[in-house]
Design brief:
10 strands; binds S-adenosylmethionine
Length: 264
């Protein structure tokens, strides 16, 4: 019994010595740095640190693990085919994605002969994707808030394909993003996680009790809108989405596609 106690106390003293006196110990050196200690002890974790810890402590069920196995557009092969056919005809001057995560859809966009810009707010996901696309010359990643980055682009008449997918419980730039994108008259917007009218088999996001739906995003109501027109069970993923043809100039491409329906 006494032996056990002495062994425990010795272990405890070793840990204290390790933390306080071992000059080569990175953790001790980190903690005695006044700035870093202030940050840690205030309990004020930045989103980046939160993301990192989330992934580290539950790696097998982490966001990283889930995303690592995903294909473009949340594994939706049919949507990937629809967008692929559209982009081949539309021939965009640029593709602009908000919310890179691990770049699963960014990589798909990178296969088209155009410049791809993708914005990610989390430094962790930005850095991982940055490494992933080091040799992809047509993909440019930006670490920042997509609403800020988008608003810095002056509306122009280029054909830009906007893919708005930067939504999370802590950040929802969608309203600002849509309002700005609508000023680009030759552009087309694809919004992910959006409610498909009269079809609940497609999933959609809800933030602060507000669904991502036409009713809550009236600014797109008077534009040409296209929604998926097929059964969800043909794909693994089932997220809803809407395509906004801002000026209605590209209806010839959309209306011939039976996999989409036009909302009036
Ligand atoms: C659904 S995931 C994106 C998935 C990715 N587009 C794909 O297809 O694989 C949403 C991402 O948006 C990011 N995000 C959330 N708010 C953001 C903002 N305001 N600006 C940029 N990125 C944001 C999140 O960190 C997360 O990585």
């Amino acid at each position: 019994m006494l032996k056990k106690m002495i062994s425990k106390i010795t272990k405890f003293l070793k840990i204290i010595f390790f933390l306080l006196f071992n000059r080569n110990n990175w953790l001790r050196n980190y903690l005695i740095n006044e700035e870093k200690f202030k940050k840690l002890s205030s309990g004020n974790l930045s989103n980046d640190l939160e993301n990192l810890i989330d992934n580290l402590f539950n790696l097998s069920d982490s966001r990283l693990q889930q995303a690592a196995n995903e294909k473009p557009f949340n594994n939706q092969n049919t949507r990937t085919e629809i967008i692929s056919n559209f982009l081949n005809e539309y021939k965009p001057d640029q593709i602009f994605e908000t919310g890179t995560l691990l770049g699963n859809t960014t990589e798909f966009f990178g296969n088209f002969d155009t410049q791809v810009i993708s914005v990610e707010i989390s430094e962790l996901y930005f850095l991982i994707s940055k490494i992933r696309f080091l040799d992809k010359k047509n993909i440019k990643l930006i670490n920042g808030d997509s609403a800020d980055i988008l608003l810095n682009i002056t509306p122009n008449n280029k054909k830009i394909f906007f893919y708005l997918d930067a939504h999370s419980q802590s950040s929802l730039p969608l309203k600002k993003e849509i309002e700005h994108c609508l000023k680009f008259e030759n552009s087309v917007i694809l919004i992910d996680d959006f409610k498909v009218p009269n079809n609940d088999s497609f999933g959609y996001d809800t933030y602060n009790n507000l669904d991502l739906s036409i009713e809550n995003y009236e600014e797109i109501m008077d534009r040409d809108l296209y929604f998926p027109n097929y059964k969800t069970d043909i794909d693994v993923g089932n997220r809803g989405y809407v395509i906004v043809d801002i000026s209605g100039k590209f209806s010839n491409i959309f209306i011939k596609n039976n996999l989409l329906f036009r909302h009036n």
